[in-house]
């Protein structure tokens, strides 16, 4: 790889100052995260760029795990990136999946993820309104408190659509394998 | 997860003393690693437990990426673990795959990995003689020099079978996506 690769590692710092103000932080499953008022998103793994950090979570973007070629074409056609001017709302949702999930083979996980739970098909229905970026934590090391961190951005008027997206995913068979989830809303 | 999980992170230190003596270290593709005489395998990420380390590579065991349920049953039935008394030979083979590989979707990678290259089917033919353990590096961070580290153990009399296994894999379509590989033989 000759050209410098874009950063894949991101750190989410919660504290008392920052770019995104926390409107709401609530545990959906398992233990919560400590209360803070702001989130800063930082490229790389620098763990103490700000004073008074309450907690920090790290995640790394990576290759696709479940999306097929046909699904990827649909997604690429429909989705928009982060940073849209009208996207004044965001959500940070870290989740952890059970040991039972991780012991499944690829075909078993794909079957639950899409054939049973329609994870990709449901997400597609909310594009391009809800932009998302997935970060993986599980293989960063052995001490990570979550397996994934997803960052979402949308217009204030799309927050109820976002709630509906989450309700549908959380009632799917895939979510039987989620044992910790925290829902953090930002603006 | 109530019970303590077994360690998933391992560090491979090359130096001038250690449990495994390096018989041969040669670059197969891309740049080599510096010459050393011994390798120590350590649980966890401790980067300086020994004096005079020449280089260290880290990897983490993780969930299955390509194996199907049917293939897993065959593997579990046939394979044996590391640490067999008669396995006095080992090999440490770090590889890196190209950006083109990582931009493929799951179904495209599986198609190349197994339907075209028979990676699992070929490996099965050398079980239980050749025991193996795969470590992932790519999502440990952004500075890892390799994407995978595989550790193999076998009897001295099986080294020519091991060579044949490698020759077959290296001539497969999957290996067109390998841009760095170093082959380190140990005893």
Q: Which whole number gives the mean pLDDT of chain A?
A: 94
Radius of gyration of CA atoms of chain A, rounded to a whole number: 16 Å
Distance between the termini of chain A: 37 Å
Which chain pair has the greatest contact? Answer: A-B, 35 and 35 residues
Helix content of chain A: 10-25%
Number of helices of chain A: 5
Shape of chain A: globular
Query: Strand content of the residues of chain A, in percent?
Result: 25-35%
Lateral strand order in the biggest sheet of chain A: 4-1-3-2-8-5-7-6
The chain-level structural class of chain A is alpha+beta
Total strand count of chain A, please?
A: 8
Order of helices and strands of chain A: EEEEHEHHHEEHE
Folded structure, characterized:
2 copies of one chain form a homodimer. With 187 residues, the first copy, chain A, is α+β, with helices and mostly antiparallel strands. Helix content of chain A is 23%, strand content 32%. Chain A contains 5 helices and 8 strands; from the N terminus they run E-E-E-E-H-E-H-H-H-E-E-H-E. Chain A has helices at 69-78, 99-102, 106-116, 119-124, 159-170; strands spanning 9-15, 20-29, 38-43, 55-60, 89-97, 131-136, 148-154, 178-186. Chain A has an 8-stranded antiparallel beta sheet. Chain A is globular and about 45 Å long. The interface between A and B is medium-sized, with 35 and 35 residues.
């Amino acid at each position: 790889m000759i050209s410098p690769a874009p950063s894949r590692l991101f750190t989410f710092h919660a504290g008392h100052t920052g770019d995104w103000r926390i409107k709401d932080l609530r545990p959906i499953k398992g233990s919560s995260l400590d209360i803070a008022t702001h989130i800063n998103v930082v490229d790389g793994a620098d763990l103490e760029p700000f004073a008074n950090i309450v907690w920090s979570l790290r995640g790394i973007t990576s290759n696709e795990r479940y999306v097929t070629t046909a699904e990827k074409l649909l997604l690429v056609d429909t989705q928009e990136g982060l940073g849209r001017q009208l996207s004044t709302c965001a959500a940070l949702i870290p989740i952890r999946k059970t040991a039972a999930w991780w012991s499944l083979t690829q075909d078993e996980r794909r079957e639950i993820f899409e054939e049973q739970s329609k994870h990709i098909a449901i997400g597609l229905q909310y594009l391009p309104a809800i932009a998302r970026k997935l970060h993986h934590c599980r293989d960063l090391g052995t001490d990570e408190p979550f397996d994934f961190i997803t960052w979402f951005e949308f217009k204030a008027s799309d927050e109820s659509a976002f709630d509906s997206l989450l309700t549908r995913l959380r009632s799917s068979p895939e979510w039987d394998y989620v044992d910790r989830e925290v829902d953090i809303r930002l603006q």
